[in-house]
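Hi U.,

Before I forget, here's the chain from the pilot set. I'm dumping it here mostly so it's searchable later in email.
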Amino acid sequence: MLKLQRLLPLRMGLLPRVIVLLLATLPLLAGLYYLLPSPPEVITVTVDQGAVQKDLWISGEVKAKRQNTLFSSLPGPIEWIVDEGQRVNEGEPVARIAGQPLTTPIAGQLMEKKVPTGSWVPPGTPLAEVADPTDLVIQAMVDETDVLKLTPDQPVRWTLAGYPGQSFSGKVLTVSRVVSRDHEGNKGFRILLSAPPGITLYAGMTAEGRVILEQRDEALRISVDALWEQDGKPQVYLLRKGRAVTVSVETGLRDDNYAQILSGLQAGDRVIIPGGAKFTSGQSVRLKEPTKAEAGDKT
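Structure:
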């Protein structure tokens, strides 16, 4: 009992000192807290449903669907009797070679004279092009790795330099089964595609398009920018209660903007756009505050 009475005053005397010491260290602890790095800012996108398509980019040239090259069949001087750009009927004479008429096998327009009047032409010389400018198509070349993906009636979305900011619909008409070479000697297969209707086009114009090979209209999808790979498998960072959680996903169709999600996510999930950053699964993150311009766009 005597020892207990002696210890109590000592312990009671230490308590105020401990409290004072703790109070003295609070500012230091607070300072250390503010020195700790804050969680990284992240941008997120929401998993939604919409169209995803697999397509094939092509570049083509506007051409007349019916076009014919006229050749000389006998030697002699040529005399043109039809002006360049003039309309001609099927079987109509367009020139004379050694006094014999040169006729066109198709109706259309004399597009280009390759030799001038008075020139001596041997047999087999290309003389002119006759084409029907009212019936236009787009001709393109594809290589052997892509030709087997194409079939008639596949839809196409066209863009043309003469119509900036606009796109037009079309379709595949024919796919050649015989290899050809372009003017540069490159080997490929010729395809014909429908030209956009209702707009002014001229033979020789360049068109760029995407043949839609496969499409899902109501696919579960995310931005392709949210995907990254680990050991060859697609991954995403799922935002869950302020933390970046690594989730493996299975993807399907993919285009320039979206990837179809077959498993691993559901509509409404928010995933992080890593932008090259790496996060530990479960790491704390914070959402980047929108700028005034971004906030104004949402109102």
